[in-house]
Q: What sequence folds into this?
């Protein structure tokens, strides 16, 4: 059933006949809802990306001849508050489209409401493959949902190449110890890395240490890692990542460490850790800190920095996703004549924004076809951002890049080659 | 050897954290569930003063302790005293206060976590274990404060008055001690200790709006297992909890680290409610 | 039993009012009311245990969580029909109630509060570590079967459940058993002196509380359609439950209901004006001030106001229970 008000069509017809000035009347608006945390860098990146996209769209006459307004609903990163926020947007505000900067369990929390209300929804932060699996299993109820970040599985797959090309061939490392937080995300990534690192990159996994996310003392864990005799540590940390990375620096653990460290994705990482961040590297969705930007994305960042003075000073990857995603969602509405969940979904599925830099394909915002099989992983990714995990990354954005923080506070992309702006190094206290 | 060194360092930090909580519990006889908030406030005050404004670290630590002390005094005046010994009401209102303070910190600083620079920078290797000077300093500070406190309570007039109030409020007031003043003093002292511990705790782990929960649980564990009113008990049990954590991580299963602490609390409470070193009374 | 016609008339009016609400308010408000209904159930459950017997439970999310997780796991992972899963969840929660009861045999006061807090924290950690394939680990579960769709249906279901719980607890509390329970809260020794078994009375209170918590928890998860450890075994959730019971008025039935509605609406109505973190700050401050001002709760404020309206001197009868 459709939650679309039939009066919308009439309002639309009237708005089309009258001048633009009339269309700013309060009732004839397109409402976009934001769901996410209003006090985290993550949530704010998505919110601000959406705000800028809406301003630009409104300056160009809005969508469907109407101006767009934005309604915010704070989740405080709590799953139950997330459900309430989604209900507020859907039933009190009756929004047409929802842009989300939610984290995993919050998205999963409101997902049953999305299935019930069938409001077009775009997630920009969570990369949980389980949600894409839900679309595969139950397309009909999940189809208004889109996720324009490469799912976590794709992140890990490309990371294996980094292991082979850089860790094994360049650094000469043969063995690794995995240091994994005890979360579903940690378990999934550790599984992928364990299964693929040895056969594909020739790096042996010596041991896996799982730690509790409230751990505040990593000294014994680092001791165990050193005792294992592995060449480097593979860290998987999405919660409280600052603790483990800053203790690695403060304790000057004498072995290399790379992996997934969600805290290191933002430009504020250096400041937040008081500089205890040198030598930390992590995989990151694109674009990331240290990432060379195409002109369109650069223009977005310029507008962003002129408009917002508070943190995050540089939008995280999900800010870009929200900016391009909101524009695509509105373009789809323009093509479909509204946010109807059959025609809008079809139009959204076809959205495809290709951004070039110096004549080379650089970033791409589009979605996988519903039955399209990704050749390396051999599975489908309906409504997931179209990513590319094989060189030369011309069919889509790379699913991830590896970024590195240096001891002088600068940062760079170090992998893949095509996007690299610096070299992968270990901190100065680690003997090669 | 690594385990012993790491265990000693962590336990020292835990003893420091639990000390202020023990004081209030033994003198005021109430659970200050907002105790963790002193650590929160101490950490953030220090962050603002030393890391953002660049004031020398020792001054930052001092100001953090002063602010902690003020918050403790305010809490006693505005919250504990009006509720006149209604323990349940105090416990619940301190719980509410902690949640309010957490929201306040999110409001001012946002909810992304921050890392404090070490108060004392540097690291060395002892018997294969990395030892940061910062944690070493925290442990030494902890021992100094503990020994100081021990003698303060035993030897000074105020300290003995605290003991008296802790044992019997009415008896104490008959013998000329003003329990109100002593309580006031204890709340202030507890706040200052908590804030100091917060700076060390945050400089070892991180600064985040929800950082008050973990130290609260540690304090609860230490106080419950140690029994009330026992400085020595606090010290010993801080070491039990600290070593148990290090052992769990180093030898058994790191993901079960917190589970052991909870089981210890429940186990001791059920088997020996007065704590391992406490007095035979509730 | 001390029952009067006026009581039944008041209940009837209350029930009629609650059922008439969907005619007058928007769907968005109904959604808020649904959360208020569930919170009211949890607050009543807390009050049966803590408000009456004086054993302050800081671990109520532990019981609610058992109910919610049991039902969610049974329906989602083992395809057990919902009609069987909910009773199973309630039974499981009552087992949990016995577990919480055991320490109460030996300890009370602050120590009991702490042990229940430890139960909650323990559960929070165990749910993530043990069998994440069943519990969904840290992320929890989504797509749990829901009982109803739409705000109106959800409202009728939740309000019926809430009213059924409230009415049966009210009736229970007016029996001699209920009076004896409150007596345990006042003075355990004198109850023992009067020849009643305090242990049995306490066990009864714990089981009743667990029954309501399990029932509420199971229906709650089938309303939300999702469950996550962070949403349940959380100090903020605990805070909301306790504060709802206390702000409304502990040791009454209507008190926790009033408190739950007040808190839920307070938070939701602040949303348009204070979208961000300041909302929780103001919300907590109001809760704290209200509690400090009148620890007996809103119900005491109302009845004082009512008496003043009636001329103060005229009535010495307070009917707040």
A:
């Amino acid at each position: 059933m459709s939650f679309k008000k039939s009066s919308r069509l009439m309002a639309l017809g009237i708005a089309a006949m009258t001048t633009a000035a009339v269309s700013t009347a309060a009732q004839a608006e397109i409402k976009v809802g934001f769901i996410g945390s209003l006090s985290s860098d993550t949530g704010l990146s998505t919110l601000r990306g959406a705000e800028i996209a809406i301003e630009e769209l409104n300056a160009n006459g809005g969508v469907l001849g109407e101006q767009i307004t934005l309604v915010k609903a704070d989740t405080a990163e709590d799953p139950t508050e997330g459900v309430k926020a989604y209900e507020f947007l859907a039933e009190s505000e009756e929004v047409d489209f929802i842009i989300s900067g939610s984290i995993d369990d919050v998205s999963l929390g409101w997902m049953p409401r999305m299935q019930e209300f069938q409001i077009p929804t775009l997630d920009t932060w969570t990369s949980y493959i389980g949600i894409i699996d839900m679309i595969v299993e139950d397309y009909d109820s999940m189809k208004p949902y889109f996720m324009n970040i490469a799912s976590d599985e794709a992140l890990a797959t490309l990371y294996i190449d980094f292991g082979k090309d850089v860790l094994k061939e360049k650094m000469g490392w043969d063995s690794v110890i995995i240091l994994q937080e005890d979360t579903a995300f940690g378990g999934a990534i550790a599984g992928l890395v364990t299964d693929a690192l040895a056969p594909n990159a020739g790096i042996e996994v010596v041991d896996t240490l799982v730690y509790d996310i409230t751990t505040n003392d990593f000294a014994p864990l680092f001791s165990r890692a050193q005792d294992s005799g592995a060449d480097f540590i593979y860290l998987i940390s999405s919660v409280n990542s600052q603790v483990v990375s800053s203790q690695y620096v403060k304790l000057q653990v004498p072995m290399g460490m790379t992996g997934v460290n969600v805290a290191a994705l933002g430009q504020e990482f250096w400041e937040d850790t008081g500089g205890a961040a040198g030598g930390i590297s992590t995989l990151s969705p694109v674009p990331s800190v240290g990432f060379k930007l195409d002109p369109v994305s650069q223009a977005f960042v310029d507008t962003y920095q002129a408009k917002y003075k508070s943190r995050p000073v540089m939008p995280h990857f999900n800010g870009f996703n929200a900016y391009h995603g909101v524009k695509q969602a509105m373009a789809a509405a323009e093509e479909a004549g509204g946010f109807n969940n059959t025609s809008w979904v079809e139009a959204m599925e076809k959205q495809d924004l290709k951004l070039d830099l110096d004549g080379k394909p650089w970033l791409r915002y589009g979605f996988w076809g519903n039955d399209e099989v990704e050749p390396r992983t051999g599975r489908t990714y309906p409504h997931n951002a179209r990513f590319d995990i094989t060189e030369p990354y011309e069919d889509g954005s790379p699913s991830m890049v590896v970024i590195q923080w240096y001891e002088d506070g600068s940062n760079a992309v170090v992998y893949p080659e095509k996007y690299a702006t610096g070299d992968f190094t270990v901190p100065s206290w680690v003997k090669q | 050897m690594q385990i012993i060194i790491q265990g000693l360092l962590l336990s020292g930090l835990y003893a420091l954290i639990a000390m202020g909580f023990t004081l209030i519990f033994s003198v005021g006889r109430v659970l200050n569930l907002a105790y963790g908030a002193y650590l929160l406030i101490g950490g953030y005050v220090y962050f603002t003063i030393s890391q953002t404004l660049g004031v020398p670290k020792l001054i930052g630590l001092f100001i953090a302790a002063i602010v902690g002390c003020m918050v403790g005094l305010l809490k006693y005046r505005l919250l504990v005293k009006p509720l006149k010994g209604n323990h349940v009401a105090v416990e619940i209102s301190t719980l509410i206060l902690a949640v309010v303070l957490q929201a306040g910190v999110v409001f001012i600083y946002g909810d992304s976590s921050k890392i404090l620079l070490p108060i004392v920078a540097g690291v060395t290797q002892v018997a294969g274990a990395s030892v940061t000077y910062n944690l070493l300093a925290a442990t030494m500070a902890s021992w100094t404060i503990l020994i100081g406190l021990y003698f303060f309570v035993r030897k000074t007039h105020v300290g003995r008055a605290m003991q008296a109030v802790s044992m019997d409020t009415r008896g104490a007031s008959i013998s000329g001690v003003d329990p109100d003043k002593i309580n006031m003093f204890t709340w202030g002292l507890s706040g200052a200790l908590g804030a100091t511990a917060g700076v060390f705790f945050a400089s070892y782990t991180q600064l985040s709006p929800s950082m008050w929960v973990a130290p609260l649980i540690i304090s609860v564990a230490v106080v419950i297992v140690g029994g009330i009113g026992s400085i020595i008990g606090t010290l010993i049990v801080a070491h039990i909890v600290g070593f148990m954590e290090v052992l769990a991580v180093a030898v058994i299963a790191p993901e079960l680290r917190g589970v052991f602490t909870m089981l210890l609390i429940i186990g001791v409470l059920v088997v020996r409610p007065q704590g391992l070193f406490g007095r035979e009374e509730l | 039993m001390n029952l009067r016609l006026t009581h039944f008339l008041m209940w009837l009016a209350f029930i009629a009012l609650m059922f008439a609400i969907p005619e007058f308010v928007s769907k968005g408000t109904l959604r808020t009311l649904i959360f208020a209904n569930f919170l009211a159930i949890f607050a009543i459950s807390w009050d049966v245990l803590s408000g009456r017997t004086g054993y302050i439970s800081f671990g109520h999310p532990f019981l609610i969580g058992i109910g919610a997780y049991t039902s969610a796991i049974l329906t989602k992972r083992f395809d057990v029909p919902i009609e069987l899963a909910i009773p199973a969840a309630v039974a499981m929660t009552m087992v949990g109630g016995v577990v919480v009861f055991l320490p109460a045999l030996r300890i009370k006061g602050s120590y009991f509060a702490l042990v229940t807090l430890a139960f909650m924290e323990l559960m929070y950690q165990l749910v993530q570590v043990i069998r994440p394939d069943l519990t969904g680990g840290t992320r929890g579960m989504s797509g749990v079967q829901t009982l109803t769709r739409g705000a109106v249906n959800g409202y009728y279901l939740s309000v019926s459940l809430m009213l059924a719980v409230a009415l049966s607890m009210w009736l229970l509390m007016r029996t001699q058993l209920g009076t004896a329970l409150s007596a345990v809260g006042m003075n355990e020794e004198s109850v023992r002196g009067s020849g009643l078994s305090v242990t049995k009375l306490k066990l009864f209170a714990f089981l009743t509380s667990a029954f309501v918590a399990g029932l509420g928890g199971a229906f709650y998860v089938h309303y939300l359609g999702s469950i996550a450890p962070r949403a349940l075994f959380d100090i903020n959730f605990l805070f909301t439950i306790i504060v709802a019971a206390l702000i409304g008025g502990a040791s009454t039935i209507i008190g926790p209901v009033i408190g739950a509605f007040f808190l839920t609406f307070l938070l939701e109505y602040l949303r348009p004006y204070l979208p961000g973190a300041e909302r929780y700050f103001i919300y907590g401050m109001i809760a704290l001030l209200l509690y400090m001002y009148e620890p007996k709760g809103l119900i005491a404020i109302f009845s004082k106001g009512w008496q003043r309206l009636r001329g103060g001197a005229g009535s010495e009868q307070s009917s707040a229970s």
User: Anything to note?
Assistant: The first strand of chain A starts at residue 30 and ends at 36. Chain A touches chain B through 40 residues (CB under 8 Å). Chain A has two domains: 7-149+293-355, 153-285+399-419.
